Amino acid sequence: MQLCRTVAQVRALRPRFERLGFVPTMGSLHDGHLGLIRRAKATCGAVAVSVFVNPIQFAPGEDLERYPRDLERDLELAQGAGADFVFAPEPSELYPAGFSSRVDVGLTHGAENAARPGHFSGVATVVAKLFNIVQPTVAVFGQKDAEQCAVIRRLAADLDLPVKIDIAPTAREPDGLAMSSRNSYLSPVERAAAAAVSRALGAAQARFHSGERDPDVLRIAVAAVLGAEPLAQTQYVAFADPDSLAPLSTPARRMLLSLAVRFGRTRLIDNVLLDAGGI
Ligand code: PAF
C-alpha cells in the first residue's frame, strides 16, 4: 500500500487503476470505515482512502483541535482492509495560500445544516476536490451521516461528476450505537447512556412498521426513550424527505428520521430511513 501526501503523487498513481473505489475519511478509522473500504474494494478491485481532518467543515468552537489523529494506526488499518493507497495531505496541500472557492450545494432544509451552518459547504468543497484529485469510479459513504449523503449525491448529480455514489448501511456496536470516531470522546458512563440514541430510533421504527405514519406521534416515541436517559441532551429530532431534506410534519410513507443528541461535551448523530415501500 502506498502513502500519498501530495496531489501530484495521487495523479501519478491513478493511471495504474482502471476502476478505483474511494473512501473519504477524516481518519481515526474504526470498523465502520473498514467495512466501507472492503465494500469499495469488492466493487472496484482497487480502493483509495483519504485521511484528512478538513478544517473548513468545522465551525469555531467545534472539535477541530481535539479531533483524534493517528496516521500510523490509520495506515495499518487501511492496509489490513485492502486499501491500495492512502491520500493524507497536509491542510496547506488542499488549501494553499489564496484558496477562496466554496461549493454550496444548497440543500438548506436539513436539521443538521441548521445546527451546523456552513458545515456542508465545507464538506462539499473538500469532497469535490478529493473527487477531482482521486478520480474514483465509485465513492462509498456511510448512511450514518444521512444529510451528508444527500448533499454528496446532489453534488455529484448537479455537477455531472463522473463518480457513482454508494451509500453503505450504518455500522453499529453490539448495543446499537452507530460507529463514529467521536465515540472515543465519551466517558464510560456516557458511552453506556449513548445506546439510548439507537433505542430511540428503534422505538420510532417499530411504531412505523406497525402502521404509524404521523411524525408527531413518532416524535413522542423517540422523546420517551431519550427522556428516560438523564445524560441525553436532545438537540433535534427531525423528520424529512430523504432526498430534498425538506421537513415533514404530516404523515408520510417515506421519511428520514434524524437525531442529534449530546452526552456531556460529545455530540452524536444518527438516523433511520422509514420506508413503507410501494408507491
Ligand atoms: O464523513 C467524513 O468523515 C467527512 O465529512 C468527509 C466526507 C471525509 C469530508 O471531510
What does this protein structure show overall?
This protein is of the alpha/beta class and 279 residues long. It folds into 2 domains: 2-168, Rossmann fold, CATH 3.40.50; 181-270, 2-Layer Sandwich (Pantoate--beta-alanine Ligase, Chain: A,domain 2). Helix content is 37%, strand content 20%. It has 10 helices and 9 strands. It has helices at 7-13, 31-44, 71-80, 91-94, 111-115, 119-134, 146-158, 188-193, 195-209, 215-227; strands at 2-4, 21-25, 47-51, 85-87, 138-142, 164-168, 232-240, 254-263, 266-275. It has a 6-stranded parallel β-sheet with strand order 1-4-3-2-5-6, with helices on both faces. α7 (146-158) links the parallel β5 (138-142) and β6. The longest helix has 16 residues, at 119-134. It is globular, with a radius of gyration of 19 Å. It starts with a strand and ends with a strand. The model has no long low-confidence stretch (mean pLDDT 97). Pantoate (PAF) is lined by residues 24-26, 54, 57, 123, 126-127, 145, 148.
